[in-house]
Amino acid sequence: MSGEDRRPRGPDARGSGARSRVGLLFAFVALAAAVATLLALRGGDEEPGRSLGATSTRSSPSTASRREPTRPPARVPAGAPGAHRAPDEAVPILMYHVINEPPPGTAQPELWVSRSDLAAQVTMLARRGFHGVTLQQVYDAWHAGGRLPAKPIVLSFDDGYHSDFTNALPVLRRQGWPGVLNLQVDLVKTDLPPPEVRALIEAGWEVDAHTFTHPDLTTLDAAQLRREVAGSRQALRRMFGVPVNFFCYPAGRYDARVVAAVRAAGYLGATTTEPGLAAPGQPSFALKRIRVNGSDGVEGLEESLRSAGALG
Question: In sequence order, what E strands does the chain have?
């Protein structure tokens, strides 16, 4: 023991020792009373998991599970218990464009899906057991030992419209799902400004490249092709500090020369407009998608998924 902890010795030690014994007796009685009170409180109606004088209102896992049944989360993260590796599993990638009501006389009304239709479609997908994931998660499960939740599905949004922020983001956020934004760089100046793109990223969305100007890539010379493919990736990485690991062909137009340019730019893969499920057996630079049209609604999307083999 240290010098400060030594008891006094000598003629006064006996008297102080007696007083000490009396003090210890009173302390023991007080401690016993406190223990009894605490046990009574724990057995009564106090909030479970709280101790006397505690400021936290968080319940312990055991008491919380007794109070109400455990509910599965709306979204199963890829690393959560029950998630699995899926190196051979085909995955549906949905293709959306504008999430809004089409204005009268618009040239391509089928590219417009209303917010209410998107919400109903996401609700249907969740009820059927699907879980939204990013394209990066799918690629990692196929090629890098990553994990996916049961029945993964990718919701991709082409071009980059204000409605991705105002309408798609709230719908997916309620379900706890990410989206994949195939972003045309020039639309950052006019339709989807940087603060809105950053809000999507913060909500877990993936940003991938969709060129600068949405040209037919098969018609470009080498310098133009390099700018639209490699340059768009560099611009998005610089603007938003994200990997931009995947490319989306404008209007689905590509050939061997375009694929070579996409590979040379460092992308891991690319998505097309060819209908069907994306699968690891396909070329990574020709991944299929399922187009969602404005007239589809819930039943039309179910039929598209069924035709592709994603629904029984």
Answer: 93-96, 98-99, 112-113, 131-132, 152-159, 180-183, 206-209, 246-248, 269-275, 287-291
How many CB atoms lie under 10 A from the CB of residue 137? 24
> Which regions of 73-166 does DSSP assign to beta strands (E)?
93-96, 98-99, 112-113, 131-132, 152-159
Is there a contact between 140 and 165 (Cβ–Cβ < 8 Å)?
no
CA–CA gap between residue 36 and residue 34 (Å, rounded): 5
**What's the pTM?**
0.75
Q: Of the candidates 149, 141, 128, 129, which has an alpha carbon nearest to the alpha carbon of residue 76?
A: 149
So where are the chain's domains?
13-67, 93-308
Q: State residue 94 phi and psi, 5-degree precision.
A: -80, 145
Residues 148 and 135: beta-carbon distance below 8 Å: no
81-111, pLDDT tens digit by residue?
568 888 999 999 999 999 999 999 999 999 9
Burial status of residue 52 (CB atoms within 10 A of its CB: 0-12, 13-18, 19 or more): exposed
What would the 3-class secondary structure string for 235-271 be?
HHHHHHCCCCCEEECHHHCCCHHHHHHHHHCCCCEEE
Least Cα distance to 209 among 267, 132, 169, 154 occurs for 267
Q: DSSP label at 310?
A: S
For the chain, which residues score pLDDT lower than 70? 1-82
Strands (E), 86-179: 93-96, 98-99, 112-113, 131-132, 152-159
Question: Regarding the domain delimited by 93-308, which CATH topology (the fold level of the hierarchy) does it fall under?
Answer: TIM Barrel (3.20.20)
The DSSP 8-state label assigned to residue 50 in this structure reads: P
Structure token pair of residue 162: 């204000």
For 75, the enclosing helix (H) or strand (E) is: none
Cβ pair 185, 211 in contact under 8 A = yes
> What angle (nearest 5°) sits at the alpha carbon of residue 203, between those of residues 239 and 147?
105
